[in-house]
Amino acid sequence: MKTETKNSRPLAVFQLGALVLVLLLAMLVTSCAGGTAATPTPGAGTPTSAAGKTFTAAQLAQYNGQNGNPAYIAIAGKVYDVSGVPQWAGGHHHGYSAGKDLTAAFPHPETLLQQIPYVGTYVG
Do the domain assignments include residue 15? Predict the structure, then answer.
C-alpha cells in the first residue's frame, strides 16, 4: 500500500513543470541549431546584411511576423531575426509577440541568441 502526504502532490507538479520547461528549452535549442549540436552557424548571432541598422520601437513593430513581414525581437539593445525559428511561426511564441523589445520578459539564457541572426541595434 502506497502512502502519500498532502505536500507531495505540489512538489510532483512542480517537478513535472520543471521537466517540461527543460524539454521545451532543449527542443528550442535543437531546432535553432538545425537538429545538430549547438554549434554556432556562420553569421548567426553576428551582424548580417541588415546589421548596423538602428531600430526605434515604431520601426521594430513593423517586423511582427505578420502579413509576410519578418519576425524580429529586441533583447538587451540588440535586434534578432527569429523568422527562421519554427517556434516563432506567425510572429508569436508562448504568448510573446515579435516586433517588440522582450528584454524584461525573455525566458531563455542569452547564449541561446548566438544561434539567431543579429540584424541591428534597438534604440527604443
Answer: yes
